[in-house]
Specification:
This protein is α+β, with helices and mostly antiparallel strands. It is built from 17 helices and 14 strands. Helix 1 (3-31) packs antiparallel against helix 2, helix 9 (314-338) packs parallel to helix 14 and helix 12 (437-447) crosses helix 14.
C-alpha cells in the first residue's frame, strides 16, 4: 500500500471521528435542560464538567500517521537498494565494466547499467584553472590550487562544488554518498587544461572525511572522479547518444576509462592516475612506437557494425552533419567582411575581420574544392564498395592531450619492458567511428604540429614539426608489425605476427588460461618457426611489410586533406563571433538544476543568487577557434594545390604567402 493511500485512509478516518464528535456534541446540547451550566466541585472549587478528551485522540492519530510515514520510508529505502530508479537513455542502457567499479553497480542481462539523470550542471562561472581548492587546503599550506581572491569567484566555486556533491548523491557514485553536502567546501575541484571541446575537472573527496564505520572498521575513501562537462557548441558537433553507444562497446573490451554516471550536459568517468603526454612526447621514438601499437589494438579490437561500414567514412559524415551550420556562420562572416571599408581597420567587437576570409577565400569557393576533392578520393577506390572494405574503428582525435601514460605501482605487469606500450591509455572517444587507417594516421601526424599549451598562439599549426618520412615510416612500421591478441572473452579474432607459418599457430587460443596479465590485453606473441623459416621466407615477409608500409603512407597522404577540411569546419562551429545572429533560436535552452531549499540551508539566502556580470564585462573565449580554423584552412590549400585541385594562381595574393605546404 502506497504512502498516499495510507495517508488518504488516515484523513478519512480523522474526518469520520470529527463528524461523530460534532454529532455527539449536538445531541448533548439538545438534551441538556435550559438552566445555568451545572458546576461540579473539584478540589473544593466548582468546575465545568469535561467531555471526552480530544487531545488524547489527536495524539494517537498523529502517532499513527508518524508510524505510517516511517514504515513507508523504511520500505522505500530497502527497495531502493535492490531496484534502480534512474531514468536511462536508451543508448546507454548497458555498459560493461569490472565488478570492482567506482560506482554502485546495477546489472541488466549481465551488463552494468550506468545511472543517468536530467540535471544540468552549470560551470559558466568556474572555467578558470586556478579555483576550486578545498577549504582546508588554505590552512594546510599545501597549495596545489590557489584560491582566487575574488569573492564572486569563490562563491561560484562553492556553489559548483555543492552541485557536484549533490549530483554524485543522485547518481549514487560509489563512496560519494558518504560525503555530506555540508562538507562540499572540503572537496577539491581542479580543471585540467588541454581539452578543447569540453571542460574537464578532477574531483577529489575531502581529506578530513570521517571513514570510521560503526563496527570499528575503516572504510575506503571515495575515489577521485573525472568530471566532463560538454562545451556550449557541442550539440552542433557530436551526437551524444551515438557516443554513449560507442563507449558501451569500448567498455566491453575494457578500452578507455569507465563511465560512472551521466547527466544532461556531461558525465562522470573513472579517474586514471596518469600523466598526459606532451607535444615533445609525440616526437619521441619509443613513445611514437607505443602509440602506434595502441592504435593497432583499437583498430583490430573493435569490430565495425554493418551500418557503420554502409555509412562510409566518419570524416564525411561529420562534414555533412556540420555543413549547414558552417555555411550559416561563414556566409554571414563573409558578408560582414565584404561590407567592411577596406580603408578602415576593424577594432573592438569587429577585430576578427582583420583576418579576412576565414577560409582564405569566399566560402563557396572553399566548398567547391572540397566537393571536387571528395569525388577524386572516391574514384581512387573505384567506388564506395571497395572503400567500405578498408574502414576500421578509428579514434580520429589522437592529439597528445588525449593520450595518458599510467603510473603503475608495485609489481604491475605494466612495468615489464615488453608491456611498456600498455601504459598508454587513449581517452576522449567523442569522434571515434569508422575511418580508414590513412585518415587516422593523417590526423595523428598533423597533431604533431600543435602545442595547445603555447602561451602565445595555442591555435597555431606549425607545419615545420610535421613528422618526416622517416618518422612516419617508423610509426607505421610499428603499427604494421604489431599483431595483438585479445582475451577469448572479448570475441575478437586472434592474430599472429606477419609471416608466421600455419604450423606455428596455436590450435586453440580460446582455451588458454586467463591471467592477471591477460586482463591488460598484453601480447601473447607466437614464436616464429625455426628450421622451416628460411631466408627466402624472411625476405618475402620483409617485402610484404615494406609494401604495406608504403601503401599506408600513400593512403595517409590521400586522406590528409579530408582530415584538414573536417577540422576547419569544427573550428568554425566552435567559434563565438561577436554580433553573429542566433541561427537556431528554437534550440532548447539549458535548464539549471533545482533544489534551492537545500542550498539555502547551507549557503543562506544570499548564497542562492549568483552575481551577474558587471556592465560591459564580456567573457573572453578560452581558445581562438577562428584562428585555429584559418590556420587549418591554409594547410588545406597547401595540399589542394599539390593535388592539382586548384592552381596556386587562383588563390588571392595575400593567401599565397600564408599557405602551409608539407611536401611529404
Amino acid at each position: 500500500e502506497s504512502l498516499v493511500d495510507q495517508v488518504s485512509s488516515w484523513i478519512k478516518e480523522k474526518r469520520a471521528k470529527r463528524s461523530h464528535r460534532k454529532a455527539s456534541r449536538k445531541a448533548e446540547d439538545d438534551s441538556a435542560p435550559a438552566s445555568p451550566t451545572s458546576m461540579v466541585p473539584v478540589n473544593g472549587k466548582e468546575s465545568r464538567p469535561r467531555r471526552g478528551s480530544h487531545a488524547s485522540d489527536t495524539s494517537l492519530d498523529l502517532e499513527k500517521l508518524e508510524r505510517i510515514v516511517k514504515q513507508t520510508l523504511h520500505l522505500r529505502r530497502s527497495s531502493a537498494r535492490k531496484i534502480p530508479h534512474f531514468r536511462r537513455k536508451s543508448s546507454a542502457r548497458k555498459l560493461l565494466r569490472k565488478p570492482s567499479s567506482a560506482s554502485d553497480t546495477e546489472y541488466f542481462e549481465g551488463d552494468v547499467l550506468v545511472p543517468t539523470c536530467d540535471v544540468v550542471l552549470d560551470n559558466s562561472k568556474t572555467l578558470s584553472y586556478t579555483g576550486g581548492a578545498s577549504d582546508v587546503s588554505d590552512e594546510s599550506g599545501e597549495e596545489e590550487l590557489k584560491r582566487v581572491g575574488s569573492v564572486r569567484d569563490n562563491d561560484a566555486w562553492s556553489r559548483f562544488k555543492f552541485e557536484i556533491v549533490r549530483l554524485s548523491h543522485t547518481l549514487r557514485l560509489k563512496g560519494w554518498r558518504r560525503v555530506p553536502l555540508e562538507m562540499c567546501g572540503s572537496v577539491e575541484v581542479q580543471r585540467l587544461s588541454g581539452a578543447l571541446t569540453n571542460a574537464v575537472y578532477v574531483v577529489s573527496p575531502p581529506e578530513d572525511l570521517p571513514l570510521q564505520k560503526e563496527d570499528g572498521t575503516t572504510a575506503k575513501p571515495p575515489p577521485k572522479l573525472l568530471l566532463r562537462i560538454y562545451g556550449p557548441q557541442v550539440e552542433h558537433l557530436i551526437d551524444r547518444q551515438a557516443e554513449l553507444a560507442i563507449l558501451q562497446r569500448l567498455a566491453r573490451k575494457r578500452i578507455g576509462p569507465r563511465m560512472l554516471g551521466t547527466f544532461a550536459n556531461g558525465r562522470f568517468e573513472e579517474f586514471f592516475h596518469a600523466e598526459t603526454l606532451t607535444p615533445e612526447d609525440l616526437k619521441d621514438a619509443s613513445t611514437s612506437r607505443q602509440i602506434a601499437k595502441r592504435m593497432r589494438e583499437l583498430h583490430d579490437g573493435i569490430e565495425l557494425l554493418d551500418q557503420e561500414r554502409d555509412d562510409g567514412p566518419f570524416v564525411w559524415r561529420n562534414w555533412d552533419k556540420w555543413l549547414q551550420r558552417v555555411e550559416q556562420i561563414v556566409t554571414w562572416m563573409d558578408s560582414q567582411i565584404a561590407a567592411q571599408d577596406p580603408n578602415t581597420k576593424p577594432t573592438g567587437s569587429k577585430a576578427w575581420m582583420r583576418r579576412g576570409y576565414i577560409c582564405g577565400v569566399p566560402w563557396q569557393q572553399f566548398k567547391a574544392v572540397v566537393e571536387k576533392y571528395r569525388a577524386w578520393l572516391k574514384a581512387q577506390y573505384g567506388g564506395s564498395k571497395h572503400l567500405r572494405e578498408q574502414l576500421v574503428f578509428a579514434h580520429n582525435d589522437t592529439q597528445y592531450g588525449n593520450i595518458l601514460r599510467l603510473v603503475p605501482a608495485g609489481k604491475s605487469p605494466l612495468l615489464l619492458p615488453a608491456n611498456s606500450h600498455k601504459q598508454l591509455v587513449v581517452i576522449d572517444f567523442e569522434y571515434a567511428s569508422a575511418n580508414t587507417p590513412g585518415l587516422e594516421f593523417a590526423n595523428h601526424f598533423t597533431e604533431w604540429c600543435y602545442n595547445y599549451h603555447d602561451k602565445r598562439k595555442p591555435y597555431a599549426c606549425n607545419t615545420n614539426t610535421y613528422p618526416t618520412p622517416e618518422e612516419q615510416d617508423r610509426f607505421i612500421r610499428a603499427y604494421v608489425r604489431h599483431r595483438p591478441q585479445f582475451n577469448a572473452a572479448t570475441d575478437t579474432p586472434h592474430m599472429t605476427p606477419v609471416g608466421t607459418p600455419d604450423s606455428a599457430r596455436p590450435a586453440d587460443l580460446a582455451r588458454r588460461s586467463t591471467t592477471s596479465i591477460s586482463d591488460f590485453m598484453l601480447d601473447a606473441r607466437v614464436p616464429p618457426g625455426s628450421s622451416s623459416t628460411n631466408l627466402a621466407a624472411e625476405a618475402a615477409t620483409k617485402s610484404a611489410e615494406d609494401a604495406e608500409v608504403k601503401h599506408l603512407m600513400h593512403e595517409t597522404r590521400m586522406w590528409r586533406l579530408a582530415n584538414t577540411a573536417q577540422w576547419v569546419a569544427w573550428g568554425i562551429v566552435q567559434a563565438k563571433v561577436p554580433g553573429m545572429p542566433l541561427f537556431d533560436p528554437d534550440s532548447p535552452a539549458s535548464e539549471l538544476s533545482q533544489g534551492e531549499d537545500v542550498a539555502k540551508e547551507i549557503f543562506g539566502e544570499d548564497g542562492l543568487a549568483m552575481p551577474k556580470e558587471e556592465d560591459g564585462e564580456e567573457q573572453e573565449e578560452e581558445f581562438d577557434y577562428l584562428g585555429y580554423a584559418q590556420h587549418r584552412a591554409m594547410f588545406f590549400w597547401g595540399d589542394a594545390v599539390q593535388l592539382g585541385l586548384i592552381g596556386e594562381e587562383e588563390l588571392p595574393e595575400e593567401v599565397r604567402g600564408k599557405v602551409k605546404t608539407v611536401l611529404y
